[in-house]
Amino acid sequence: MIEKKSSWQKTILSSTSTLQDAIVSLNETALKIIIIVNQENTFLGTISDGDIRRGLLRDLSLSSPLTSIINKNSLVVPPNHPSENIQEMMRANKIHQIPIINENGSVMGLHLWDNFFEVPELENEMIIMAGGKGSRLMPHTQNCPKPMVLVAGKPMLQHIIERAKAEGFKNFTISLYYLGHMIEDYFGDGHKFGVNIKYIKEKKPLGTVGALSLILPKLSQSFLVTNGDLLTDIKYRDLLDFHFHFNSDATMAVKSHEWQNPFGVVETNGIEIIGYKEKPVIKGNINAGVYVLSPQCLDELDFGEPCDMPTLFTKLQKKLKKTIAYPMHEPWLDVGRSEDLMTARAQESKKD
After folding, report:
1. Is 130 in the same domain as 110?
2. Largest CA distance in the chain
């Protein structure tokens, strides 16, 4: 099946576009592909969601041109190509999108995997850390756990579960502490949401990962962990695939962040001035609060003892375990303050 014209056309960019343009398009369409054309609108190639992430890992900037990452040998099909052949091509080449190009090199549409096949269910557990008190979000959290604060008429926690369910996740574990009974009363065993939900209950605050020590029996396959106060369009399934592809022990989603120093910075060597930078921009990766962990990671936790995720990653690194970063470009918001909540509500209302 061909994606609706209004959607696939948004994936088309010119060869003069930048990485920033590609990221905007990927986030608007959620189709994980960019189609590149020249000034005559002739097809040149494609850029996948994965190409963008690899570009970010190579430290490309948002203003970098797309020409360095265009795949000029993309698989394409002509109009009216048999549906069964397209499905087989997707399976054989492990791709989810195939552009439709006519004999003149014009883009006519886009075939998508999701339009041929249902998203298969995953057995991997998704663990949501929802025990925090949310002190910075007072008074909204005075009588309500932070993950239950409403955004677009639904608790933030429900947004997370529904987005993960749409990607095939069905097994959830929620960590509870502050006003945890309200979460358990609302979600129950997950039946009314079409998923399975279990709970782990902290008797004291255990940090961002300590509660995982309470899971019994221990998990037997890699699992996702996310904070319960995040609103993001990250593709959880892609993050899991990335973890497996690189044979990682622990994978952390990271978000590129730029901060401009409001002051001029003087560079010195002792008392000698050797340089001056006017309000420099500092670029780095921040922890996005979403992870994939292999079951062996749980061995580094002491039962019932507090631990945060950076500490766990440090322990794993000291034991020479493979820890990697998953560069994400999707919209992301940590709803920690009242102004963040206002932003989240405004963003979600636009989607509706």
Report:
1. no
2. 74
> pLDDT tens per residue, the chain (352 residues)?
444 445 788 899 998 999 999 999 888 888 889 999 998 989 999 999 889 888 888 888 888 889 889 999 999 999 888 887 888 898 888 888 999 999 999 998 898 887 777 778 999 999 999 988 877 777 878 888 989 988 888 999 999 999 999 999 999 999 999 999 999 999 999 999 999 999 999 999 999 999 999 998 889 999 999 999 898 999 999 999 999 999 999 999 999 888 888 899 999 998 899 999 998 888 888 999 999 999 999 999 999 999 999 999 999 999 999 999 999 988 888 887 777 777 777 777 666 5
pTM metric for this prediction? 0.76
Domain-terminating residue out of 77, 92, 115? 115
Query: β-strands 171-176, 126-129: how paired?
Result: parallel
In the chain, helix, strand, coil percent, each to 5?
Answer: 35, 30, 35
Which residue segment(s) compose the domain that 68 sits in?
5-115
Residue 334 shares a structural domain with residue 254: yes
184 and 233 in one domain?
yes
Same domain? For 102 and 184 the reply is no
- Is 243 within 8 Å of 325 (Cβ atoms)? no
120, part of any domain: no
What are the C-alpha distances in Å from 92 to residues 97, 110, 112, 244, 295?
Answer: 13, 18, 15, 19, 31
Amino acid letter for position 97? Q
DSSP string, 110-167: EEEGGGTSPPPPB---EEEE-----GGGTTTTSSS-GGGSEETTEEHHHHHHHHHHHT
